[in-house]
Automatic annotation (TrEMBL):
Coiled coil: none annotated. The keyword Signal applies. Residues 1-311 form the GH10 domain. It comes from Streptomyces broussonetiae. Keywords: Carbohydrate metabolism, Glycosidase, Hydrolase, Polysaccharide degradation, Signal, Xylan degradation. The active site is at 233 (nucleophile). Belongs to the glycosyl hydrolase 10 (cellulase F) family. Its EC number is 3.2.1.8. This is Beta-xylanase. It catalyses: Endohydrolysis of (1->4)-beta-D-xylosidic linkages in xylans. The chain holds residues 38 to 349 of 454 of the full protein.
Amino acid sequence: DAPLRDLADAKGKVIGTAVTGSKLSGTYAEVAAREFNWLTPGNAMKWESVEPSRGSFNWAEADRIVDFAEANGQQVRGHTLVWHSQNPGWLTNGDFTPAELRTLLMDHIDTEMTRYRGRVAAWDVVNEPFNEDGTYRQTLWYDGLGQDYIAEALTRARAADPSARLYINDYNVEGVNAKSTALYNLVRSLKERGVPIDGVGLQAHLILGQVPGTFQQNIQRFADLGVDVAITELDIRMQLPVTDAKLAQQAADYRAVMDACVAVDRCSGVTVWGFTDSDSWIPDWFEGQGAATPYDENYAPKPAYDAIAASL
Ligand code: XIL
């Protein structure tokens, strides 16, 4: 059967995966290269990874992933520049003034985007800015700079790499709800103000049997604002142990997500958050749950894999 990336290429769609740089050898590397046309570093480009102590940078894993992608004709989604989580301790414990915070943030965007200028096709510039009720999440950035930290970051990002597509990314914004409506209103207002914004990322960390019925409608309303939509972190978790019935439900859920994206021109495609259950964050973060990706722990494709292929 044709690899997923060949099917996706023929449709002009992204089929991506998050990857761990240190694992890019052997079977893991073979599958990542063969099946996917985009890669996202799962952790390697986060601030705590690239600048663990102030002014001292570690680009090794991020470089490895970008080099691997280029060697295999893949594009890279940069993840992520402005977030409340996985920031280095020196930053979160630093007790900086708003002016200092602004300078730190702008320099961070400049440094990281300049390093990969022209080599990272899309950036999750801002990650997870909203609460579930649609209010702004109180973060280092919101508390210090106010809600316009988002516009400031996007403006700086455009200047740092004019060739990169700039995204705001969040979770629980797949269906039409209070949170996705807040994101929608933000994107509309950014567009009205002329702030650079090219797309929204819908993470899609989903629960078995719970693909929102309004997924395609929600994608379409963002598309109608004149931005791209990417499904950026798809996984569909289940209570363990795995059963055939759960795998069948999972395949149907993957199919529904794929079909919703394929149906909308401005949905650029789907990235899974790890392609194998052996490289998924779910067991570490959601007790008793797992098996959320299209391949099992031994790189055997699951029914979800066939569902992705069937949609493409
Ligand atoms: C996760 C990684 O996969 C884990 O390895 C890490 O321990 C925590 O972060 N939303 C995001 C991703 O935007 O960056 C997160 O990745 C998963 C949730």
